[in-house]
Design brief:
The complex is a heterodimer of chains A (298) and B (257). Chain A has 298 residues and is mainly alpha-helical. Chain A folds into two domains: 38 residues; 196 residues, MetI-like (MetI-like fold, Orthogonal Bundle). Helices cover 77% and strands 0% of the residues of chain A. Chain A contains twelve helices and no strands. The longest helix of chain A is centred in the first third of the chain and has 39 residues. Chain B is built from twelve helices and no strands. Chain B has 257 residues and is mainly alpha-helical. Chain B starts with a helix and ends with a helix. Classes of the chains: A mainly alpha (298), B mainly alpha (257). At the A-B interface, helix 1, helix 4, helix 5, helix 6 and helix 7 of A face helix 1, helix 3, helix 4, helix 5 and helix 6 of B.
Chain lengths: 298, 257
């Protein structure tokens, strides 16, 4: 009797504790998701805002047939790939340095976390100011040091690089912190054993650090890919909404423009579904792949 | 240097007198440094109003976020129930939604509910978007608190509610602090949803207000920089203060998956 009582009480507790959060998420996340699915199948736009009707998959084919979609798709993949390479590269290198016993370690660590702590939109707007061709700090510095002048924000790839640099600055602390946490959990005894066997620094890195860091880094990288792929703020704010002439977009900022500047609502809904589907498939494949790889190593 | 240079730049620009904003000098403390930008921010611009709007919204989001994440995370960590795995995976999936996917229906929904252009609309939107991450974080932290502590309390006759409030929550204080910080920051620095959901100038939050300084034809860099500093310094200090716990929280969460 007593145990039955307890499990009943437990069940009530589960419901009591979980329900509020789940309801809020369902209302604001799940319901919109379903609603979005319906809109994506409809013809809702500025002229059909209230009297819209379901008309099938034509929005999806419209998106997939659109050449700008593929163009921005390519750009988004490039954007995500480059960002992640720099984030992980810089993050892990700094973590390796900070993990050694150097003077003022915690001071440097605090300094290096700063970019993460500043609100993202402020970073983005500030870098936009720094990339200003005439008065921006970056061009002033470049002119002084190398004597070159780059039209950052007025050329397509200049603006792309500006967004990239901004986002690299923003993103490396996260990877650094995660890697640092991972490094600290690796026991020194592995390295001592390797030293006795005569392994050099590179062998130790390949043989101990990389595999043991992997379980920590893989989830962080998956999250990083998702966040970067969908990073609206940096691209939108640095390029001031896609300048010059709507070339500096990734998929999310382009779909935002379609929805809230041109009010092609159903088209934008279908577009969002496609982005989501892509990320979903990618994450699953990546998780599966990294699990499979772990099994091989035992 | 790479990490802090942009911050120094902002500081330097905020001190420049009005006519030197577009200066080509690289000096850190400009000639005739002045606090005029700060003065104008409070006297001539609705900065205080934006600050108040942002504060109200962020505090509300923090309360809702911490309350719901603390309880839901606890259930996910301690109890096995039907749909547990599925819910946890579902929560992660929400992170993959592009913003527009939620924004668009939210926009239409809030218009229909009459919550467009209101505090409540924004508070609901922010709480829901911050929740998935915070629930996972709380769950990850609870997983590290040994269950035996609660068992011992139960043997002494404590009910589950008592042991949650009196034993688990105090131990989870670092995680609660992080969750609070995360919820607060996500509302404090959110630009996009606010840009779509707010029309009324009186309701503008800080991000919308600051963006205005930079997108006018004549960019008000002095005002912008002064405001940017005032907005970031409190959260940055808080963030750095809590970062020690943040580090352990994040890595624990990711190792345990």
């Amino acid at each position: 009797m007593k145990s039955g009582d307890k499990s009943n009480q437990n069940r009530r507790l589960v419901i009591l504790y979980t329900a509020p959060a789940m309801i809020v998420m369902a209302l604001v996340v799940l319901y919109p998701f379903l609603y979005n699915t319906v809109i994506s199948l409809s013809n809702m736009n500025l002229t059909h805002f209230r009297d819209w009707q379901v008309k099938g998959l034509s929005n999806f084919s419209a998106v997939l047939m659109d050449r700008t979609f593929w163009y921005f798709f390519f750009k988004t993949c490039l954007w995500t790939g480059l960002n992640l390479i720099f984030h992980v590269g810089i993050g892990v290198s700094l973590a390796l340095i900070l993990n050694k016993d150097i003077k003022g370690k915690s001071f440097y660590r605090t300094l290096l976390i700063l970019p993460w702590a500043v609100p993202q939109y402020i970073t983005a707007l500030t870098w936009r100011g720094m990339f200003n061709a005439e008065y921006g700090t970056i061009n002033l510095l470049l002119e002084k040091i190398a004597g070159i002048h780059i039209a950052w924000l007025s050329s397509e790839w200049g603006a792309f690089s500006a967004c990239l640099i901004t986002n690299i600055w923003l993103g490396f602390p996260f990877m650094m912190i995660v890697a640092l946490g991972g490094l600290q959990s690796i026991s020194d005894s592995y390295y001592e054993a390797a030293e006795i066997e005569g392994a050099n620094a590179w062998q130790k890195f390949r043989g101990i650090t990389v595999p043991l860091l992997k379980p920590v880094m893989v989830p962080a990288i998956i999250l990083g890919v998702i966040w970067t792929f969908n990073n609206f703020n940096v691209v939108w704010l640095v390029s001031n909404g896609g300048e010059p002439s709507d070339t500096t977009h990734i998929l999310v900022s382009w779909v935002y423009k379609a929805a809230f500047t041109y009010f092609r609502l159903s088209y934008a809904a279908a577009f969002s579904m496609i982005i989501f589907a892509f990320l979903f498939v990618f994450s699953w494949r990546f998780i599966k792949y990294s699990r499979a790889a772990e099994n091989i190593y035992g | 240097m790479f990490a802090i240079y942009p911050i120094l730049c902002v500081f330097s620009i905020s001190l420049r007198p009005g006519d030197k904003l577009l200066s080509k000098s690289l000096a850190l403390i400009p000639e005739n440094a002045t606090l005029i930008s700060y003065y104008r921010l409070f006297a001539e611009e609705p900065f205080l109003r934006w600050m108040m709007n942002s504060t109200i919204i962020s505090l509300a989001v923090t309360l809702v976020g911490v309350g719901l994440a603390a309880t839901a995370g606890y259930s996910f960590s301690r109890h096995k129930f039907k749909g547990r795995e599925a819910s946890l995976l579902g929560i992660i999936t929400t992170q993959m939604f592009p913003v527009t996917m939620l924004l668009l229906p939210m926009f239409i929904m809030l218009i229909k509910l009459g919550l467009y252009d209101s505090y409540i609309g924004l508070i609901i939107a922010y709480s829901a978007t911050a929740l998935p991450f915070t629930v996972w974080q709380m769950k990850g932290y609870y997983d590290t608190i040994p269950y035996s502590l609660e068992e011992a309390a139960m043997i002494d006759g404590a009910g589950p509610i008592y042991s949650f409030w009196r034993i688990v929550l105090p131990l989870a204080l670092p995680a609660l602090a992080i969750t609070a910080l995360f919820s607060f920051m996500s509302a404090w620095s959110e630009y996009l949803v606010a840009a779509v959901l707010l029309q009324d100038q009186n309701l503008y939050t800080l991000p919308i207000g600051l963006k205005q300084f930079t997108s006018n034809m004549e960019v008000a860099w002095g005002l912008y920089s002064a405001a940017a500093l005032l907005v970031s310094v409190p959260v940055v200090v808080l963030f750095l203060f809590l970062s020690r716990w943040l580090i352990s929280g994040l890595t624990l969460g990711s190792v345990k998956g």
